[in-house]
């Protein structure tokens, strides 16, 4: 019997959940594009419906393509089980809906993806869930926010877009001491670069739209955790809420993950070089990249992450106008939100993703007018730097 747990990351990414089709021998398993399933007899159907025998029930529950993808992701994250959703937000929302009930309290990082604030403030608060936002890199802030009804801590590390790092091991000790569940959004790192479950987290969530798929051609999300949480806590909810993912999307993400380790190596090697280039550039005020010695939490990054990721935030000298000029002058690098694609993307939070926030609030959370975020792709490094160079020169 093959011991999958002992396989290396590349092998897991390629082989787990990827078996030839048992009916035809097709090397690549087909996309099971069906809404429902036929049974031999009412007796067999009965066993499947009561869980006595494994079988497929209905397209809103799961599909064979989805289950193959879930096996692959669970193996890479080192989790017992995984559930895939129609988007990263659906994954985050379902994880919290399974963990919380009216009257509970959540502590959430104060720098997280905008949709996560929206979920807590616009959706869960009206259902009676209280939330406090704190700097989760400081345990004393978590202690201050703790209430008798606190049930969950949600962190994103590195956080979007300031790249602030939270010590997962430390926060997990705090959570265990107070009987709280720790949810970590691992989107920026991927399981290749950071394994929150090994560091003590209970649940990992991802926007699979990003590096897991890696090719910018679908939207998906995942939750990884214990078998009990995924099967009892989560699966029940998903089927009722209907936040399902299509078999075609599962196929795309599954195919994308096969090259995740290779892509991540190229992403992080390129990112380090771009960060060094930017740090030395006279038109750049400061660079935020966990791999740079100048990054305030560089030592923690070295301890917690296998690589420093491929997101770089930097401040252009001259503020809003100059940052916008830089973005508008680029020729190969695309101006687009999202991240983790094979191609390099740039975004200017003050004019795009964070434009609707009040200016003072935005600046207080470190998102200055001149801040620009790069998601470094896997192109040849010379071409990324040449494009940035010509854009700076034209400014
Ligand atoms: C860190 C992080 N988490 C979650 C999400 C939400 O994912 P999705 O867009 O797949 O719903 C995003 C999206 O950008 C993100 O950056």
UniProtKB/TrEMBL annotation:
Protein name from the UniProt record: PLP-dependent aspartate aminotransferase family protein
Entry keyword set: Aminotransferase, Pyridoxal phosphate, Transferase
UniProt family annotation: Belongs to the trans-sulfuration enzymes family.
InterPro entries: Cys/Met-Metab_PyrdxlP-dep_enz, Cys_met_metab_PP, PyrdxlP-dep_Trfase, PyrdxlP-dep_Trfase_major, PyrdxlP-dep_Trfase_small
Pfam families assigned to the protein according to its UniProt record, in alphabetical order: Cys_Met_Meta_PP (PF01053)
Keyword set includes Transferase: yes
UniProt xrefs under Gene3D superfamilies: Aspartate Aminotransferase, domain 1, Type I PLP-dependent aspartate aminotransferase-like (Major domain)
Molecular function terms from GO: transaminase activity
């Amino acid at each position: 019997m093959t011991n999958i747990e002992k396989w290396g990351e590349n092998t897991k990414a390629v082989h787990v959940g990827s078996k030839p089709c048992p009916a035809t021998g097709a090397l690549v398993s087909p996309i099971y594009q069906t809404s429902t399933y036929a049974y031999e007899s009412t007796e067999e159907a009965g066993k499947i419906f009561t869980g006595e025998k494994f079988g497929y029930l209905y397209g809103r529950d799961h599909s064979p393509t989805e289950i193959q993808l879930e096996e692959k992701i669970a193996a890479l994250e080192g989790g017992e089980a995984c559930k895939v959703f129609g988007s990263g937000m659906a994954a985050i929302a379902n994880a919290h809906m399974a963990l919380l009930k009216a009257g509970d309290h959540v502590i959430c990082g104060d720098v997280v993806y905008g949709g996560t604030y929206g979920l807590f403030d616009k959706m869960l608060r009206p259902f009676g869930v209280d939330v406090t936002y704190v700097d989760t890199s400081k345990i004393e802030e978590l202690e201050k926010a703790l209430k008798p009804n606190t049930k969950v801590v949600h962190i994103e590390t590195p956080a979007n877009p300031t790249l602030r790092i939270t010590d997962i091991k430390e926060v997990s000790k705090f959570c265990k001491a107070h009987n709280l569940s720790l949810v970590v959004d691992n989107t920026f790192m991927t399981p290749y670069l950071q394994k929150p479950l090994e560091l003590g987290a209970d649940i990992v969530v991802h926007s699979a739209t990003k590096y897991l798929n890696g090719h910018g051609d679908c939207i998906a999300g995942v939750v990884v955790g214990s078998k009990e949480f995924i099967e009892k806590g989560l699966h029940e909810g998903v089927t009722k809420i209907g936040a399902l993912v299509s078999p075609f999307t599962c196929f795309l993400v599954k195919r994308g993950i096969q090259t995740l380790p290779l892509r991540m190596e190229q992403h992080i090697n390129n990112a380090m070089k771009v960060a060094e280039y930017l740090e030395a550039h006279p038109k750049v005020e400061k660079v935020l990249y966990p791999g740079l010695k100048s990054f305030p939490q560089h030592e923690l990054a070295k301890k917690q992450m296998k690589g420093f990721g491929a997101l770089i935030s930097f401040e252009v000298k001259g503020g809003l106008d100059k940052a916008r000029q830089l973005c508008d002058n680029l020729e190969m690098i695309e101006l687009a939100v999202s991240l983790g694609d094979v191609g390099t993307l740039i975004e200017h939070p003050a004019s795009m993703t964070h434009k609707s926030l009040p200016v003072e609030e935005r600046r207080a959370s470190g998102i200055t007018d001149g801040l620009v975020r790069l998601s470094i792709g896997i192109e040849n490094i010379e071409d990324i730097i040449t494009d940035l160079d010509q854009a700076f020169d034209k400014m």
